[in-house]
Protein backbone atom coordinates (compact mmCIF):
# COMPACT_ATOMS: atom_id res chain seq x y z
CA UNK A 1 0.00 0.00 0.00
CA UNK A 2 1.39 3.37 -1.05
CA UNK A 3 1.35 6.27 1.38
CA UNK A 4 0.95 9.76 -0.03
CA UNK A 5 2.10 13.01 1.62
CA UNK A 6 -1.50 14.21 1.96
CA UNK A 7 -4.02 13.95 4.77
CA UNK A 8 -5.41 10.51 5.52
CA UNK A 9 -8.86 11.76 4.51
CA UNK A 10 -7.64 12.70 1.00
CA UNK A 11 -5.72 9.43 0.61
CA UNK A 12 -8.79 7.40 1.59
CA UNK A 13 -10.98 9.42 -0.78
CA UNK A 14 -8.54 8.70 -3.63
CA UNK A 15 -8.53 4.97 -2.84
CA UNK A 16 -12.35 4.89 -2.82
CA UNK A 17 -12.46 6.75 -6.14
CA UNK A 18 -9.91 4.35 -7.66
CA UNK A 19 -12.02 1.42 -6.50
CA UNK A 20 -15.16 2.96 -8.06
CA UNK A 21 -13.28 3.37 -11.35
CA UNK A 22 -12.01 -0.21 -11.16
CA UNK A 23 -8.37 0.85 -10.86
CA UNK A 24 -5.90 -1.24 -8.89
CA UNK A 25 -2.26 -0.55 -8.11
CA UNK A 26 -1.24 -3.81 -9.79
CA UNK A 27 -2.64 -2.53 -13.13
CA UNK A 28 -0.27 0.45 -13.18
CA UNK A 29 3.16 0.77 -14.70
CA UNK A 30 4.87 3.67 -12.96
CA UNK A 31 8.05 5.47 -14.04
CA UNK A 32 9.84 8.46 -12.58
CA UNK A 33 11.32 11.04 -14.92
CA UNK A 34 13.25 14.23 -14.34
CA UNK A 35 10.74 17.04 -14.61
CA UNK A 36 11.29 20.26 -16.50
CA UNK A 37 10.64 23.89 -15.67
CA UNK A 38 11.84 26.21 -12.93
CA UNK A 39 13.82 24.85 -10.03
CA UNK A 40 17.36 24.91 -11.39
CA UNK A 41 19.81 22.29 -10.22
CA UNK A 42 17.24 20.63 -7.96
CA UNK A 43 15.00 19.61 -10.89
CA UNK A 44 18.02 18.43 -12.87
CA UNK A 45 18.98 15.98 -10.11
CA UNK A 46 15.66 14.58 -8.87
CA UNK A 47 13.18 12.45 -10.77
CA UNK A 48 9.99 14.00 -9.43
CA UNK A 49 7.85 13.70 -12.58
CA UNK A 50 5.55 10.67 -12.49
CA UNK A 51 4.50 8.73 -15.60
CA UNK A 52 1.60 6.37 -15.00
CA UNK A 53 0.28 3.81 -17.49
CA UNK A 54 -2.92 1.85 -16.89
CA UNK A 55 -2.13 -1.41 -18.69
CA UNK A 56 -5.70 -2.70 -19.32
CA UNK A 57 -6.92 0.51 -21.00
CA UNK A 58 -3.62 1.95 -22.26
CA UNK A 59 -4.40 5.29 -20.60
CA UNK A 60 -1.32 7.38 -19.86
CA UNK A 61 -0.83 10.20 -17.37
CA UNK A 62 2.25 12.35 -16.85
CA UNK A 63 2.29 14.58 -13.78
CA UNK A 64 4.88 17.18 -12.88
CA UNK A 65 2.54 19.52 -11.04
CA UNK A 66 4.51 19.62 -7.78
CA UNK A 67 8.20 19.46 -6.88
CA UNK A 68 7.57 16.49 -4.61
CA UNK A 69 7.54 12.99 -6.13
CA UNK A 70 5.04 11.80 -3.52
CA UNK A 71 2.54 14.52 -4.33
CA UNK A 72 2.97 13.90 -8.05
CA UNK A 73 2.20 10.21 -7.46
CA UNK A 74 -1.02 11.23 -5.71
CA UNK A 75 -2.02 13.69 -8.45
CA UNK A 76 -1.16 11.22 -11.24
CA UNK A 77 -3.61 8.71 -9.75
CA UNK A 78 -6.22 11.43 -9.34
CA UNK A 79 -5.82 12.48 -13.00
CA UNK A 80 -6.00 8.82 -14.03
CA UNK A 81 -9.36 8.50 -12.27
CA UNK A 82 -10.61 11.60 -14.10
CA UNK A 83 -9.56 10.20 -17.47
CA UNK A 84 -11.09 6.77 -16.83
CA UNK A 85 -14.35 8.40 -15.66
CA UNK A 86 -14.39 10.59 -18.77
CA UNK A 87 -13.95 7.53 -21.00
CA UNK A 88 -16.52 5.34 -19.28
CA UNK A 89 -19.18 7.91 -18.42
CA UNK A 90 -18.59 10.25 -21.34
CA UNK A 91 -18.06 13.16 -18.98
CA UNK A 92 -15.93 16.09 -19.99
CA UNK A 93 -12.78 16.63 -18.00
CA UNK A 94 -12.08 19.91 -16.27
CA UNK A 95 -9.43 20.62 -18.89
CA UNK A 96 -11.88 20.12 -21.77
CA UNK A 97 -14.46 22.39 -20.13
CA UNK A 98 -11.81 25.06 -19.59
CA UNK A 99 -10.63 24.81 -23.22
CA UNK A 100 -14.20 25.11 -24.56
CA UNK A 101 -14.84 28.15 -22.37
CA UNK A 102 -11.70 29.89 -23.67
CA UNK A 103 -12.62 29.02 -27.26
CA UNK A 104 -16.09 30.59 -26.82
CA UNK A 105 -14.58 33.72 -25.26
CA UNK A 106 -12.15 34.14 -28.16
CA UNK A 107 -14.94 33.67 -30.70
CA UNK A 108 -17.05 36.30 -28.92
CA UNK A 109 -14.15 38.77 -28.83
CA UNK A 110 -13.47 38.22 -32.51
CA UNK A 111 -17.12 38.98 -33.38
CA UNK A 112 -17.09 42.14 -31.24
CA UNK A 113 -13.86 43.36 -32.83
CA UNK A 114 -15.21 42.70 -36.33
CA UNK A 115 -18.43 44.55 -35.50
CA UNK A 116 -16.48 47.49 -34.09
CA UNK A 117 -14.30 47.86 -37.19
CA UNK A 118 -17.14 47.24 -39.66
CA UNK A 119 -20.29 48.76 -38.12
CA UNK A 120 -22.27 48.43 -41.35
CA UNK A 121 -21.56 44.65 -41.52
CA UNK A 122 -23.17 43.16 -38.42
CA UNK A 123 -22.25 39.52 -37.79
CA UNK A 124 -25.00 37.71 -35.95
CA UNK A 125 -23.77 34.16 -35.41
From TrEMBL:
A Pfam family this chain is assigned to: RF-1
Positions of the UniProt region annotated as Disordered: 90-125
Biased composition (Basic residues): 103-115
MF annotations from Gene Ontology: translation release factor activity
Prokaryotic-type class I peptide chain release factors domain: residues covered: 23-118
Keywords assigned: Transit peptide
Matches recorded under InterPro entries: Mito_Transl_Release_Factor, Pep_chain_release_fac_I, Pep_chain_release_fac_I_sf
Sequence ranges of Basic and acidic residues compositional bias: 90-102
Recorded family membership: Belongs to the prokaryotic/mitochondrial release factor family.
Descriptive protein name: Peptide chain release factor 2
Gene: prfB_1
